Amino acid sequence: MSVSETDSEVSARLEFEQAQRSEGWKLLRGLLRDQRRNLVIGGLIGISWAAFKVAIPQVTKFAINDGIEKNGPLLKWSLIIIGLGVMTGILSGFRRYVAFRESRWAETLLRERLFSHVLGLNVGYHDKAQTGQLMSRASSDLMQIQAFIVMIPITMSNVIQIFAVATILFITDPVLAIVAMAPLPFVNLSARRFSNRIHPISIAVQAEQAQLANVVEESVSGIRVVKGFGAEQVQFDKLSKEADDIYKESMKAAKIRSNFMPAIDVLPALGAVGVLGVGGHRVLSGQLSIGDLVAFNVYLTLLVWPLRNVGMIIALGQRAASALVRIHEVLSTESEITDPAVARDLPSQNGKQLGAVKFDRVQFGYDPDRPVLQNFNLDIAAGESIAIVGATASGKSTVARLLLRFYDTNHGHVFLDGVDVRKLKLRELRQQIGVVFEDTVLFNDSVTANISFAKPNAAQADLEKAAKLAGAHDFILQLPDGYDTVIGERGFSLSGGQRQRIAIARAIISDPRVLVLDDATSAVDPSKEGEIRDAMRTVMSGRTTIVIAHRPGTIALASRVVFIDGQTVAAIGKHEELVATNARYREVLASMQQVKTANTKVAVK
């Protein structure tokens, strides 16, 4: 408890944690409810297994009393015991198969549900979420849940075995049964104490594992930055700290388990000692047969593993509870950007030019108290190309993000072909807007798969046409396997210009109404820049295009320039006109050119 926490705050925090845990178990119950048929089958197999398992000591008792003491058919009893053992083994195999099958299926369903939900969350959520944390939930947390689910049908059969053994012991000899079962309440008490102590440690371990995953993910994805600055030791120190934290928390959990598990072994042993002492006297007095005493001891050994299983299932349950809370945190997060309840359709062509865009009195800020755009008004005619120019952080890329509906405006409206983008289904909206981001992201797949990302069934002719327009076709043919070449993670096997040209081809192939080029020539070699601009000019012809640009040559591709300054549209006109008449525009262009020149020098070095 923190020194600054009051009793009411502690109570509120504990109530919140309990509510979160309850929601987590609710999530698990929903999963298991969908699998109830197979779980029932697994339960029936478990009951059959327990019946055969419990029958073996009874048959052993008859074999001793009848086959040994009375010279009866010992071979018959031996064959029966062998048959029961074989059936027990077969059913044990089926029991474990069903348990693992259902647990893996539940894990698969939950992983797919989690992944689908994460993909559906708005960009604003991903701006703040740590990738490593999400990866940890989709991997280690789900493994904890799977490990718990696999024990459910196994534990059910073990519990049935415990009750069956207890019933047989009391029927055989109530006094001796009491002696044998006397330590069991203490097992239950120890289990409850163990559960209460291990739960917060389990949460802490999984939280530390997520932090470790985040360090690994950042280090691997940013390996070029790490190596470029010679910061390997910095990242290693971060990882060492997180690994040490996991070790410390794990050792706390191990200490708790080491205090609990011996009781599971010792307490049944105390019962066995009592059975031997009291049972021996009862055999000598003729109140109990030798077969009954042997069966009693065998039954006690049958209690050891199920009782150990109780400790295991409690530990796994606590880890699963922690994991379920963390999974529920993600699944219960609602996307701020969703499809409308009643969606409208975009107008069809009908001989008209499509792709008109309008921003009407838009106000927006990533933090509503700090607006990026205010009273932003802009009309882009269908088929028109405009260049958006402004200083760093002036809101240029924000315009594209609002059009794509990565974010919703705080006030005002954005229209595509006369329809408010909030009235459109997200998929339909984004299929009609081709975008090339400044930070090019390609996937570890073939060139074909990357270009056809938005149109998976595209014909080869369409692929090549898009690649030619983007100036990518020639260098693709020179790759080892041409269009079938796998380009590696994030496409880093290619140059920056090559990656960007493939990204341009990816945007072109979907034949969008609107094309957004967010500084799309920034990574292109100067020698190739003119060639790509010619291709872009062809692509832009007759298509609504928004070019977010810094270079004068790229700005000149557009028919109009929209200059953003002071969070709004400060001027609109042709590039040459604004250079001649707007001092602030000249100042912004000059500052951007200085930054670009400095970056180019650094890159060359």
Q: What descriptors fit this protein?
A:
605 residues; ABC transporter transmembrane region fold; six-stranded mixed β-sheet; four-stranded antiparallel β-sheet; 20 helices; 10 strands; 9% strand; elongated; disordered C terminus
Architecture of the domain at 19-331, CATH level 2?
A: Up-down Bundle
CATH superfamily of the domain at 19-331: ABC transporter type 1, transmembrane domain
Biggest sheet: strand arrangement: 6-7-8-3-9-10
Largest beta sheet, briefly? 6 strands, mixed
Distance between the termini: 54 Å
Structural class: alpha/beta
Instruction: Estimate the global geometry from the Cα principal axes.
Output: elongated
| Percent strand | 5-15%
Question: How would you portray this structure in words?
Answer:
35% of the residues are buried. Helix 2 runs parallel beside helix 5 and helix 3 runs antiparallel to helix 5. This protein has a six-stranded mixed beta sheet with strand order 6-7-8-3-9-10, sandwiched between helices. By secondary structure, the chain is of the alpha/beta class. It contains 20 helices and ten strands. Strand 9 (560-565) and strand 10 form a beta hairpin. The two termini are 54 Å apart. Mean pLDDT is 82; it is low at 600-605.
